[in-house]
Every structure is written in structure tokens, then in C-alpha cells.
């Protein structure tokens, strides 16, 4: 069965993904695929450069992610334009990667870490969805701590570009609350893993 892993920005998806990997799951990260589809030579990179201009490229032709982020995370219309270029390519790659991994090793649990799983209407593609939850204030705090270049307002604005995390928690099949210590999260994962193994 394919399982979806989601949450909000800086809620702890990668942290939980690593705990699941430790236990034997195979996790495919949509943020990683989003990087692959804009590598030099990929059609999506050419399209991004055409629409957003040379200022979003480094001198060697690779994507300047910080420069592009500074444009799109401050402008919903431009973010939607970027998503229109990248999301179809990311989705296709996710499907291919999961199918390939499942064919190679059907006994394992295959998990897709997709930050925008609910926003992009993909929940139905997964048998179960696990949401990594922290309250909005903790999201903003951890995002600001991880990205010192952002002001508190910019960190809050990035959080608010996504669906409210309380709504994601309501829609979830499983919830891991990552607002406590890493040890507390690990303990929740141990219990959840036993449940997952019985699927
Ligand atoms: C704008 C880009 C180049 C900035 O790159 P950067 O390396 O600084 O950030 P990174 O990709 O690691 O994303 C960090 C986090 O930002 C959030 N985020 C990314 N894209 C979006 C988006 N379209 N809407 C809301 N939040 C987003 C996610 O929580 C993600 O985990 C990049 O985020 C991007 O290409 N975004 C569009 C593709 C997309 O929607 N990716 C989300 C996963 S499918
Ligand atoms: N339980 C915790 N206690 C304290 N800090 C934590 C905890 N879990 C994660 N963090 C920190 O919070 C930040 C966000 O965690 P992580 O990168 O796992 O989130 P994410 O949901 O994958 O983020 P994004 O979607 O933005 O890539 C990281 O700096 C991480 O080290």
C-alpha cells in the first residue's frame, strides 16, 4: 500500500520520514523530486527561466532557488504560475518512482512525503495519510530558527501559503504530534509503526 506523509512547512515531515526509514520503510520526498525536475537540461528548468527571467539562474545555468523563492513566496499569483510548470512533472516522477520501488520490493511500506498533498487534491491516491502536526506558532518558530534569513513576518507568511494545519490534522488517517521532544515523537512512531505493520 502507498502511504502519504504530509504536514505543514517545518512541522517535521523529514524528521518523521527519517524515523520511518530507520524502521524499514522506503520514503520518497516530493521536495527532492522538485529539485530533480529543475536540474540542468530538464524542460521544466527552461520553462522557469523563460517565464521568470535570467535573475533566477546562477551564472552556471543552475536554478537559484533562493532568488526564485524570494519572488514566489511573496506573490501568490507567481507561485501558482511556478506550480503550473513544476507540479505535473513532480507528480509524474512520484508515480514512476513509487511504482518502480514497489515492483522491486513489494514487501516494504512505501511512503510519499508530499508537503502539498491536501492542497493539490492527492489524498485519494494514497491508502492512508499520516499528518505530522505542530501548532501554527511552533511551525513559525521552527521555520524562523531554521531559516535565519527570514523575518518573523516572512516565516508566518510562508506558513500561511499552505492549508491550515488544523484542517490537515482533521483530514488525516493518522496524526503524529511533533510539538514535544524528538523522543516523544519517536515513541509515537513506535506505536504507529506496529499499526502500520498490521495493514
Ligand atoms: C520556490 C522554490 C524554488 C524554493 O526552493 P527552496 O530550496 O528555498 O525551498 P524547498 O524547495 O526546500 O521548500 C521548502 C518548503 O517550502 C514549502 N513550499 C515549497 N513549495 C511550496 C508551494 N508551492 N506552496 C506552499 N509551500 C511550498 C514546502 O513546505 C517545502 O517543504 C521551491 O520551493 C519550489 O520549486 N517550489 C515549487 C514546487 C512545489 O510546489 N514544491 C512543493 C513540493 S511538491
Ligand atoms: N521535535 C522537535 N523538537 C525540536 N525541533 C524539531 C523537532 N522536530 C523537528 N525539529 C526541527 O524543526 C525544523 C523542521 O523539521 P523538518 O525539517 O523535519 O520539517 P519538514 O516538515 O520536513 O519541513 P519542510 O516542509 O519545511 O521541509 C528542523 O530544523 C528540525 O531540526
TrEMBL record:
Q: What Pfam families does this protein map onto? A: CoaE
UniProt EC number: 2.7.1.24
Annotated GO molecular function terms are: ATP binding; dephospho-CoA kinase activity
CDD domains, per the entry: DPCK
Where can this protein be found? Cytoplasm
Reactions that this protein is recorded to catalyse: 3'-dephospho-CoA + ATP = ADP + CoA + H(+)
Which keywords does UniProt give here?
Answer: ATP-binding, Coenzyme A biosynthesis, Cytoplasm, Kinase, Nucleotide-binding, Transferase
* Pathway where this protein functions: Cofactor biosynthesis; coenzyme A biosynthesis; CoA from (R)-pantothenate: step 5/5
- Gene Ontology biological process terms from the UniProt entry: coenzyme A biosynthetic process
Q: What is its main location?
A: cytoplasm
Q: Quick one: a GO cellular component term? A: cytoplasm
In terms of SUPFAM superfamilies, this protein maps to:
P-loop containing nucleoside triphosphate hydrolases
Positions with a binding annotation for ATP: 10-15
State the PROSITE patterns in the record.
DPCK (PS51219)
Q: Which family does it belong to?
A: Belongs to the CoaE family.
Q: Its biological function? A: Catalyzes the phosphorylation of the 3'-hydroxyl group of dephosphocoenzyme A to form coenzyme A.
Per its UniProt record, what NCBIfam families does this chain match? dephospho-CoA kinase
Record-given protein name: Dephospho-CoA kinase
Amino acid at each position: 500500500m502507498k502511504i502519504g506523509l504530509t504536514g505543514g512547512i517545518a512541522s517535521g515531515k523529514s524528521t518523521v520520514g527519517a524515523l520511518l526509514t530507520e524502521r524499514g520503510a522506503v520514503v520518497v520526498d516530493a521536495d527532492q523530486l522538485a529539485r530533480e525536475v529543475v536540474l540542468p537540461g530538464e524542460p521544466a528548468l527552461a520553462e522557469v527561466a523563460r517565464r521568470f527571467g535570467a535573475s533566477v539562474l546562477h551564472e552556471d545555468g543552475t536554478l537559484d532557488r533562493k532568488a526564485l523563492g524570494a519572488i514566489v513566496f511573496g506573490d501568490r499569483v507567481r507561485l501558482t504560475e511556478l506550480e503550473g510548470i513544476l507540479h505535473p512533472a513532480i507528480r509524474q516522477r512520484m508515480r514512476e518512482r513509487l511504482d518502480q520501488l514497489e515492483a522491486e520490493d513489494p514487501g516494504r511500506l512505501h511512503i510519499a512525503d508530499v508537503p502539498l498533498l491536501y492542497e493539490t487534491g492527492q489524498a485519494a491516491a494514497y491508502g492512508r495519510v499520516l499528518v505530522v502536526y505542530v501548532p501554527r506558532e511552533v511551525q513559525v518558530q521552527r521555520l524562523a530558527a531554521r531559516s535565519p534569513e527570514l523575518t518573523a513576518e516572512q516565516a508566518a507568511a510562508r506558513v500561511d501559503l499552505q492549508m491550515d494545519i488544523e484542517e490537515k490534522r482533521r483530514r488525516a488517517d493518522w496524526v503524529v504530534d511533533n510539538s514535544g521532544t524528538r523522543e516523544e515523537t519517536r515513541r509515537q512512531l513506535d506505536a504507529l509503526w506496529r499499526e502500520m505493520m498490521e495493514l
